[in-house]
Amino acid sequence: MEETISLQELFTTLKKRLGLIAILTVLAVIIAGVISYTLLTPIYETSTQILVNQEKQEASQVINQNIQADLQLINTYSVIIKSPAILDQVAEQLDLDLTAEQLNQKITVSNAENSQVVNVAVQDEDPAVAVDIANTTANVFQTEITELMNVDNVSILSPAVLKENPVPVAPNPMLNMAIAAVVGLMLGVGIAFLLEYLDTSIKNDQDIEDVLGVPVLGVISPIQEETNIQKAASNTTPRRRGA
């Protein structure tokens, strides 16, 4: 026999387990908030911008050719910036106990389409260290690219600056708590339906039909409470006559 669940039964189940769902949701939000504010280490980000540009030429055609050449070299420059040839020197100059691979994970190099500006972003637990890494990486790259590729078309457009009150980019407590609320809500709903599914007790005549597979012909009315029966019996008991 195929079992179907009506929309009304779904709402009834949710209403019945509403307390459980609310508790799990609030608990998930609290846990996410505690972890975000106390256990996770704040990560700060800073960036410096590098301009890739040839020296000015008189002929406009030569300038356009140089711009196209610079744009084609930017992808190569992005790889060189994060190479051990650059990062090993950065770690040595800043006296960082980090390998080139570890330093590479802190650095992100990007540029807008058809833009001659390369953005070097650095993330670190210490905002001052992030600024030092960004600026040192840009300086070392500007120096080394002349020898590596025999070009002189790199200049630092905007160095990284340590802000007075830096704001961490990660973690995001509000986002984490919002995600936890959704997860807690889904978990609560899932557990509510699971408990309802595992509950095999017979509650009404419809459950009897589902279990036995036969229609219910009649329903016995509820029996009066024992106190009411005793009261009725005492009222009908004959009193003894006096001697």
From TrEMBL:
Instruction: Tell me the membrane topology, using the record's own terms.
Output: Multi-pass membrane protein
* UniProt source species: Planococcus chinensis
| TM spans (from-to) | 20-40, 174-195
Keywords assigned by UniProt, alphabetized:
Cell membrane, Membrane, Transmembrane, Transmembrane helix
Q: What is the lineage of its organism?
A: Bacteria, Bacillati, Bacillota, Bacilli, Bacillales
Name of the featured protein = YveK family protein
Domain named Tyrosine-protein kinase G-rich: which ranges? Answer: 142-194
InterPro entries under this entry? Bact_polysacc_biosynth/exp, GNVR, LPS_length_determ_N
- Family of this protein: Belongs to the CpsC/CapA family.
The Polysaccharide chain length determinant N-terminal domain covers 3-94
Q: Which Pfam families match?
A: GNVR (PF13807), Wzz (PF02706)
What is the first-listed, main subcellular location in coarse terms? Answer: membrane
Subcellular localization, as worded in the UniProt entry = Cell membrane
